[in-house]
Design a protein that fits this description.
Elements lengths: L3 E2 L11 E9 L8 E4 L2 H4 L4 E8 L7 H15 L9 E4 L6 E5 L4 E8 L23 H8 L8 E7 L5 E8 L5 H15 L30 E3 L21 E7 L1 H13 L11 H15 L10 E9 L17 E9 H6 L2 H13 L3 H14 L1 E3 L3 E5 L17 E4 L7 E6 L8 E7 L1 H16 L1
Parallel strand pairs: 7-8, 12-15, 15-17
Antiparallel strand pairs: 1-11, 2-7, 3-6, 4-9, 4-16, 5-6, 8-9, 10-14, 11-18, 12-13, 17-18
Helix pairs in contact: 2-4, 5-6, 5-8, 6-8, 6-10
Length: 455
């Protein structure tokens, strides 16, 4: 149980990718010039999210035909998603970031690799070379000719010599959260099949505007205040970005492992209500314990550890947000405990503390958090964030050329972000946990992980 996912013996350092064509894609019909308001949640997410979607060969859809079809499909998608063809700008009166829907276009790149899909190695393993499958800012800046013209969407189709291909997408996080990006993929797939949109996107970000006047009615220990307006310092991030030498490993939890963790939580649970003992809650509680107890040179029982994780607030608001809302409708839930409690407390208590984070996220709490951002200009901060891609379902999207063999983010190793993503063999139940830590901390984390899962 809980077997460590070993590094592949032959990891390609260079995928030998050649760029053949770079172009701007514009909406297929005229769209109105306007500025889109960005909520306080969107404001702090001014960075790119890169995802890769690997497809095996398809006899009716060789990569060059897919590239041409996606080029035309993206142009159609940029009509209902007109903001993706726009650019971020700061409002000169308020200093707030907003999207200028200026029809500036999305970037489309056609490339090829000298390898076959099978030769590039284990798709689950976060190979740094996968970065070649989605163009970096240097190539974009060289193509556009100016640093301040940053597109909000980039698509790269990279063909492999076997006939398979990778579809890489880079979108600014201010445009989508994980759920709305999944909807975008579904709509892209529908348009590629000459079908109508699966969901009509709701682009009204004013639905998550702060109240007037703002009212902070709840405590928000998960938030930290900025000392200057948002959008005026691009070097500020939600977590520490100081470069350091990190070891990273993937820990795999099978469906049986997760069932075992649930059973352990139920053993010491004081009530017979087990609704909070979910797969996500037990995995997060388990990781929290390992992460907190592996921190630093010496164990400090009084040290407070706070973990964060994202909660979708669409169904939690009153009235609920439309499920089709395209902006970021997630807030950071938190769980806090001293290391002594994490070390000796019953596992069920940790699971309960994790679950309380989501229970806390009522309509009033969410509105209070948004209003806090209006008054204080800050962002969530904790010891680490659990970022879950586990059940977003990107690999379930049905394109004309079939479903992806695997979908994953392009990983940037950070000690304060632990990534959960599906397993390629059992994407419904199995889970991979990507952990990046300084080597001494990683050694302790690994021992704790193996000991606790085997207990």
């Amino acid at each position: 149980m809980g077997a460590l996912y070993q590094e592949p013996p032959t990891l390609l350092q260079d995928l030998k990718v050649s760029i053949h064509d770079t172009s701007l894609i514009f909406p297929s019909q005229e769209t109105p010039r306007k500025s889109i308001f960005l909520s306080n949640i969107d404001q702090v997410l001014n960075f790119n999210v890169e995802t890769l979607h690997f497809f095996p060969p398809h006899k009716d859809f060789p990569p060059h035909l897919v590239a041409e079809k996606l080029r035309n499909t993206l142009a159609k998608a940029l009509v209902p998603y007109d903001f993706l063809a726009g650019r971020l700008k700061a409002n000169p009166k308020t200093g707030r970031l907003e999207i200028d829907c200026n029809g500036g276009g999305a970037v489309f790149v056609v490339a090829s690799s000298e390898y076959s899909l099978d030769e590039i190695g284990d798709l689950v393993y976060p190979n740094p070379a996968f970065k070649e499958l989605i163009c970096g800012s240097e190539i974009v800046n060289e193509f556009l000719g100016k640093d301040d013209d940053q597109p909000l969407c980039l698509v790269q189709i990279t063909s492999f010599k076997c006939g398979g291909f990778a579809m890489g997408l880079s979108t600014n996080h201010a445009t989508f959260d994980g759920l709305s990006f999944k909807t975008f993929l579904q709509n892209l797939a529908a348009l590629a099949a000459d079908k109508p949109l699966v969901v009509i996107p709701c682009n009204d970000r004013q639905l998550l505007a702060a109240r007037c006047p703002p009212r902070v009615t709840c405590d928000h220990p998960e938030m930290v205040e900025l000392k200057f307006p948002l959008g005026q310092d691009s070097n500020v991030a939600m977590f520490d970005t100081i470069p350091e030498d990190l070891d990273f490993k993937i820990f795999r939890l099978t469906a049986a492992d997760i069932a075992s963790l649930k059973a352990r939580a139920k053993e010491t649970c004081k009530t017979q209500n087990y609704k909070h003992i979910t797969g996500f809650n037990v995995v997060s509680a388990y990781i929290w314990r390992c992460k907190a107890l592996s921190f630093g040179e010496n164990f400090n029982p009084e040290r407070e550890s706070r973990m964060l994780y994202a909660v979708d607030i669409r169904p939690r608001l009153n009235p609920p947000l439309p499920a089709s809302y395209t902006g970021n409708a997630v807030l950071s839930a938190y769980a806090t405990a001293k290391c002594e409690e994490l070390k000796v407390g019953p596992f069920s208590k940790l699971v309960e503390m994790v679950s309380q984070g989501a229970k806390r996220m009522t309509d009033e709490y969410a509105r209070s958090s948004i209003d806090w951002g209006e008054l204080n200009k800050g962002f969530p901060q904790g010891e680490f964030l659990v970022s879950s891609w586990w059940r977003l379902g990107f690999s379930k999207v049905e394109y004309p050329w079939g479903r992806p063999r695997y979908s994953c983010p392009v990983v940037c190793h950070r000690k304060d972000i632990i990534l959960l993503f599906p397993d390629i063999e059992d994407d419904e139940n199995g889970i991979n946990v990507l952990v990046s830590l300084p080597k001494k901390d990683m050694d302790k984390f690994q021992i704790l992980f193996q000991e606790l899962i085997s207990a």
